[in-house]
């Protein structure tokens, strides 16, 4: 399962991140915000537009907006 498919209100742990699928600037920003394997995340909500972009993800006390392509690069496991 990837982060983009996580339903609102559900939690999971980051299993891996395909850094090669992301532009270097996006990867740097995501690392700085705490996206690393082993971190627990929850889906706050999906966007309201047709493609449901962006998604809002909670890590600790932060809520971060990601594009679906960024969320698709993050593989999850059950928390």
UniProtKB/TrEMBL annotation:
Claim: GTP-binding is one of the keywords in the record: no
Entry keyword annotation includes Iron: yes
Family annotation (InterPro entries): Fe-transptr_FeoA-like, FeoA, FeoA_core_dom, Transcriptional_repressor_C
All copies of domain Ferrous iron transporter FeoA-like, residue ranges: 1-78
Organism domain of life: Bacteria
UniProtKB keywords: Iron
Family matches, as SMART domains: FeoA
Protein name: Ferrous iron transport protein A
Taxonomic lineage of the native organism: Bacteria, Pseudomonadati, Pseudomonadota, Alphaproteobacteria, Sphingomonadales
